[in-house]
Queue: 3 jobs
Job 1
Amino acid sequence: MLSKSQISFIKSLHQKKYRKEHGLFIVEGIKSIKEFIRSNYHIHTIFYNSEQYNLLPKLPANINLFEVKNAELDKISTLQTPQGFLALVHIPKNKPLNEKELKNQFTLVLDGVQDPGNMGTIIRTADWFGFKKIICSPDSVEVFNPKTVQATMGSLARVTIFETDLPAFLASNKIPVFGALLDGESIYETQWGNEGLVILGNEGKGISPEVIKKINKPVTIPRIGEAESLNVAVSAAIFCAELVRVRN
């Protein structure tokens, strides 16, 4: 049975301030938790409902297991309908960006993406198309936000996220910089080469002026109909699909 202090501690991790303070984030649902078990992430504790214990895989000895009742899961879960499992996972240290690791491949760069669902969907999409890294600006939504983690459906366990000051990083970078802009060259006519950084901007404001200055190859997804704009996660999927096509 969970104590009041345990419940209070886990609930505090719903907030970014306390995730950062304690270095832990929440993963819910057995499918997503299994992805993190198989990854390089370090799992602190798994809380489970006894009725679903048989769904757990064989676990390393360093993972704590804690049985809870449905009523307790309701109190600590970030979901309206808890899924029977909740894990506390250690937040990895932000790795320094090494330009050599970005050579001979394409990498998504997110400038100020704010919606947790969009961020999670982009990470899941990148994973689907085989992109292993995503670079985010500091003002992008936190990837360990519970809604973001949930939207990745476990893909966060396989995609490395870097956070960095984009203007400074792009200024020192020698890899081609592509940017999703309305007045760019058609995505289907662009000469991509074999490497590049592909920048996608904020849902409402697009790419920031400081970052636009660093783009040397503006690219657009041609509009056929009358819609004013595309959702950033949809745009990311189109870019990923096209980049995989031209590379293959």
Job 2
Amino acid sequence: MTVTRTRTRLGALLGGAVLATTGVLTAQSAVAAPSVPLAADAPSAVAVTKLSHSDAANRLRAAGVSWTSSGGCSDRNTPTCTSFEQINLTTVQGAGTLKQASGCALTITGGTETGHASGAYSHWNGYKLDFSPTSCLSNYITGTFSNIGPRPGDGAQQYKSGSGNIYARESNHWDVTYYNCGGC
């Protein structure tokens, strides 16, 4: 009984905090939140903060991360552009964490633009970035993270960080899936 009440209170507090943080808090959700139980086996629903291209670019620049575009553009609907439109905040923070932890110069070559593989944790949905495979970055990833074997489908060698993010070595870049900010 105490555990259930604690879970319900925790669920209400976390639910309200997530709603308030994302700016989606309404009078109805504030009233409804306390009655929502927290199921022990339900996947955690975490609000994802999306950024505009401009906001993401400013944050990346401040973190010392650069980017390039083969088309010299940032239009999300053009595959030769490098766009950050609708990227997850945690993905941008993850790039900053990688820059700080590795000490390497980082250059992004792919963001949220069209032309990448689809899926829930895709470039388009804001979870992935591609990086130039410098020797500094490659040595850091392969020397720091756990090799988890080839990726099904394309055979790209994968490395998993302690925080759970996945680094896959494709033919001409590192394809990184950020499930979180990597300890920011």
Job 3
Amino acid sequence: MDSNNRRDLVISGSGSSSGGSYQDVKISGEGKVYGDIDCFQFKTNGISEISGQVKAKFIQVNGVSSMYGSVESEDIKVYGEVKLEGNVSYLDFKCRGSARVQGSMNGDRIDLEGDLTVAGDCEAETFNAKGAFRIDGLLNAGVIDISLYGASSAQEIGGEVITVRKKGFKSLLKSFLPMLDAKLDAETIEGDEIYLENTTAKVVRGSRITIGPGCEIDLVEYKESLNPFKGAKIQEYRQI
């Protein structure tokens, strides 16, 4: 179906509709869609629930939204709270609120200022986080830049350039990030250029590694250089 034959789906107030192919989908108030959605723009304000898959060029969530199938979009913007039950495929994922992903995430750019939970793996070219996150699988990105505002964790972290810094709570983030312990916890961290603060890990492996304040690392394996700050705890280190 080409774009000229697509109609808009608009739900205002309280209502429901079936899935299908649409030009734009706009939900204001409280709306439910039963089935899959294929559209150009998906915008929701208030409370929305989509029982199937969502495929759109642009997705914007204000308020609270639940999507129970996979999500595929070039541009996803979350300004409220979203729960995604399936896998998420994206080019640009921007979160200024809270996102819960029960599957895995795969795409180009993640820009997080808030709270992100991923039950599977999270893969991107760039991962910029100012907030807190929990990734139960692998966090893999070319450039990983993390500013810790709350307790964060990933099973494994892999990238070319990895930077982790602790930040304070002088921001609006404190309204939905109640965690006081701004630390990163991981089993393994592996990259070329690594700088860590307030990080607990069993293994850190890379070429040029700096272990900063607040770190507790069981084993560091480095190829070129290791720079430990005073007060950083490293049980064992070796050049490989």
